[in-house]
From TrEMBL:
<protein>
    <recommendedName>
        <fullName>TmcB/TmcC TPR repeats domain-containing protein</fullName>
    </recommendedName>
</protein>
<feature type="domain" description="TmcB/TmcC TPR repeats">
    <location>
        <begin position="44"/>
        <end position="89"/>
    </location>
</feature>
<dbReference type="InterPro" id="IPR057352">
    <property type="entry name" value="TPR_TmcB/C"/>
</dbReference>
<dbReference type="InterPro" id="IPR003107">
    <property type="entry name" value="HAT"/>
</dbReference>
<dbReference type="InterPro" id="IPR011990">
    <property type="entry name" value="TPR-like_helical_dom_sf"/>
</dbReference>
<dbReference type="GO" id="GO:0006396">
    <property type="term" value="P:RNA processing"/>
</dbReference>
<dbReference type="Pfam" id="PF25474">
    <property type="entry name" value="TPR_TmcB"/>
</dbReference>
Amino acid sequence: MYLAKGLGVGSFGDGMGGCRGGGGGGGGDHSSMGSGGNDGDMHGVEEYYKKMVEESPGDPLFLRNYAQFLYQCKHDLKGAEEYYSRAILADPKDGEVLSQYGKLVWELHHDEERASSYFERAAQASPEDSHVHAAYASFLWDTEEGEDGCNESQCLPSHYHLGAIAN
Protein backbone atom coordinates (compact mmCIF):
# COMPACT_ATOMS: atom_id res chain seq x y z
CA MET A 1 0.00 0.00 0.00
CA TYR A 2 2.95 2.34 0.50
CA LEU A 3 3.70 2.29 -3.23
CA ALA A 4 0.06 2.94 -4.01
CA LYS A 5 -0.05 5.82 -1.51
CA GLY A 6 2.66 7.57 -3.54
CA LEU A 7 0.24 7.51 -6.47
CA GLY A 8 -2.46 9.16 -4.41
CA VAL A 9 -4.17 5.94 -3.38
CA GLY A 10 -5.40 5.90 0.18
CA SER A 11 -5.60 9.66 0.51
CA PHE A 12 -9.37 9.77 0.00
CA GLY A 13 -10.41 8.57 3.45
CA ASP A 14 -11.31 11.98 4.81
CA GLY A 15 -12.63 13.36 1.52
CA MET A 16 -10.15 16.21 1.66
CA GLY A 17 -6.90 16.64 -0.20
CA GLY A 18 -7.41 13.42 -2.09
CA CYS A 19 -6.93 14.73 -5.60
CA ARG A 20 -3.22 14.90 -5.99
CA GLY A 21 -2.55 16.77 -9.16
CA GLY A 22 -6.21 17.72 -9.36
CA GLY A 23 -5.83 21.37 -8.56
CA GLY A 24 -6.92 21.59 -4.99
CA GLY A 25 -8.16 18.63 -3.03
CA GLY A 26 -11.49 17.55 -4.36
CA GLY A 27 -12.72 21.01 -5.27
CA GLY A 28 -13.52 21.86 -8.81
CA ASP A 29 -10.69 24.07 -9.98
CA HIS A 30 -9.95 22.60 -13.39
CA SER A 31 -7.93 25.66 -14.43
CA SER A 32 -4.85 24.54 -12.53
CA MET A 33 -4.91 20.99 -13.82
CA GLY A 34 -2.92 21.72 -16.94
CA SER A 35 -0.24 23.84 -15.34
CA GLY A 36 2.83 22.39 -13.75
CA GLY A 37 2.41 18.86 -15.08
CA ASN A 38 -0.21 17.85 -12.52
CA ASP A 39 -2.55 16.50 -15.18
CA GLY A 40 0.00 13.76 -15.86
CA ASP A 41 -0.01 12.80 -12.17
CA MET A 42 -3.79 12.48 -12.22
CA HIS A 43 -3.62 10.43 -15.41
CA GLY A 44 -1.10 8.11 -13.74
CA VAL A 45 -3.41 7.61 -10.76
CA GLU A 46 -6.33 6.90 -13.05
CA GLU A 47 -4.30 4.35 -15.01
CA TYR A 48 -3.27 2.71 -11.74
CA TYR A 49 -6.90 2.37 -10.65
CA LYS A 50 -7.98 1.02 -14.03
CA LYS A 51 -5.24 -1.59 -13.85
CA MET A 52 -6.13 -2.62 -10.30
CA VAL A 53 -9.85 -2.90 -11.13
CA GLU A 54 -9.04 -4.87 -14.27
CA GLU A 55 -6.82 -7.28 -12.31
CA SER A 56 -9.29 -7.60 -9.40
CA PRO A 57 -12.75 -6.67 -10.73
CA GLY A 58 -14.51 -7.81 -7.54
CA ASP A 59 -12.24 -6.10 -5.01
CA PRO A 60 -14.41 -3.63 -3.08
CA LEU A 61 -11.46 -1.47 -2.01
CA PHE A 62 -10.23 -0.91 -5.56
CA LEU A 63 -13.76 -0.30 -6.82
CA ARG A 64 -14.43 2.18 -4.01
CA ASN A 65 -11.16 4.04 -4.45
CA TYR A 66 -11.65 4.35 -8.19
CA ALA A 67 -15.22 5.55 -7.68
CA GLN A 68 -13.97 8.18 -5.22
CA PHE A 69 -11.29 9.27 -7.68
CA LEU A 70 -13.85 9.64 -10.47
CA TYR A 71 -16.25 11.52 -8.20
CA GLN A 72 -13.89 13.82 -6.33
CA CYS A 73 -11.08 14.40 -8.80
CA LYS A 74 -12.44 13.84 -12.29
CA HIS A 75 -15.99 14.98 -11.45
CA ASP A 76 -17.24 12.06 -13.55
CA LEU A 77 -20.48 11.38 -11.73
CA LYS A 78 -21.76 8.73 -14.14
CA GLY A 79 -18.49 6.81 -13.97
CA ALA A 80 -18.43 7.12 -10.19
CA GLU A 81 -21.99 5.82 -10.03
CA GLU A 82 -20.97 2.68 -11.91
CA TYR A 83 -17.99 1.92 -9.68
CA TYR A 84 -19.80 2.75 -6.41
CA SER A 85 -22.61 0.38 -7.40
CA ARG A 86 -20.05 -2.33 -8.19
CA ALA A 87 -18.33 -1.71 -4.84
CA ILE A 88 -21.69 -2.09 -3.05
CA LEU A 89 -22.32 -5.37 -4.85
CA ALA A 90 -18.86 -6.55 -3.80
CA ASP A 91 -19.37 -5.50 -0.16
CA PRO A 92 -22.98 -4.60 0.66
CA LYS A 93 -22.16 -3.95 4.33
CA ASP A 94 -19.60 -1.17 3.77
CA GLY A 95 -21.31 1.80 5.40
CA GLU A 96 -18.91 4.36 3.98
CA VAL A 97 -19.49 3.24 0.39
CA LEU A 98 -23.25 3.16 0.95
CA SER A 99 -23.08 6.69 2.33
CA GLN A 100 -20.94 7.99 -0.53
CA TYR A 101 -23.26 6.37 -3.04
CA GLY A 102 -26.28 7.93 -1.33
CA LYS A 103 -24.64 11.34 -1.63
CA LEU A 104 -23.92 10.73 -5.31
CA VAL A 105 -27.48 9.53 -6.00
CA TRP A 106 -28.82 12.70 -4.39
CA GLU A 107 -26.41 14.95 -6.31
CA LEU A 108 -26.84 13.22 -9.67
CA HIS A 109 -30.51 12.22 -9.68
CA HIS A 110 -32.13 14.21 -6.83
CA ASP A 111 -33.93 10.99 -5.94
CA GLU A 112 -34.62 11.61 -2.25
CA GLU A 113 -36.22 8.25 -1.54
CA ARG A 114 -33.41 6.25 -3.14
CA ALA A 115 -30.64 8.33 -1.58
CA SER A 116 -32.31 8.11 1.81
CA SER A 117 -32.42 4.32 1.61
CA TYR A 118 -28.65 4.20 0.99
CA PHE A 119 -27.99 6.56 3.89
CA GLU A 120 -30.18 4.46 6.18
CA ARG A 121 -28.38 1.27 5.14
CA ALA A 122 -25.05 3.02 5.71
CA ALA A 123 -26.02 4.09 9.23
CA GLN A 124 -27.14 0.54 10.04
CA ALA A 125 -23.97 -0.98 8.59
CA SER A 126 -21.64 1.46 10.38
CA PRO A 127 -23.35 2.63 13.57
CA GLU A 128 -20.06 3.88 15.05
CA ASP A 129 -18.83 5.78 11.98
CA SER A 130 -19.22 9.53 12.56
CA HIS A 131 -18.49 10.31 8.89
CA VAL A 132 -21.42 8.18 7.79
CA HIS A 133 -23.73 9.84 10.31
CA ALA A 134 -22.49 13.32 9.38
CA ALA A 135 -23.15 12.64 5.69
CA TYR A 136 -26.65 11.40 6.53
CA ALA A 137 -27.31 14.46 8.70
CA SER A 138 -26.13 16.73 5.90
CA PHE A 139 -28.44 14.97 3.46
CA LEU A 140 -31.38 15.31 5.87
CA TRP A 141 -30.57 18.99 6.32
CA ASP A 142 -30.47 19.54 2.54
CA THR A 143 -33.74 17.72 1.93
CA GLU A 144 -35.50 19.43 4.84
CA GLU A 145 -34.60 22.86 3.45
CA GLY A 146 -36.36 21.95 0.21
CA GLU A 147 -39.54 20.96 2.04
CA ASP A 148 -39.99 24.29 3.81
CA GLY A 149 -41.15 25.99 0.63
CA CYS A 150 -40.08 29.46 1.70
CA ASN A 151 -37.03 31.53 1.01
CA GLU A 152 -35.16 33.61 3.57
CA SER A 153 -37.31 36.73 3.26
CA GLN A 154 -40.56 34.74 3.53
CA CYS A 155 -39.51 32.72 6.58
CA LEU A 156 -38.14 35.51 8.75
CA PRO A 157 -40.32 37.41 11.19
CA SER A 158 -41.90 40.59 9.83
CA HIS A 159 -39.78 42.81 12.10
CA TYR A 160 -36.54 41.38 10.64
CA HIS A 161 -35.09 43.46 7.79
CA LEU A 162 -32.76 42.20 5.09
CA GLY A 163 -30.01 44.40 3.76
CA ALA A 164 -28.35 47.40 5.36
CA ILE A 165 -29.14 48.42 8.91
CA ALA A 166 -31.22 51.60 9.13
CA ASN A 167 -29.92 54.51 11.18
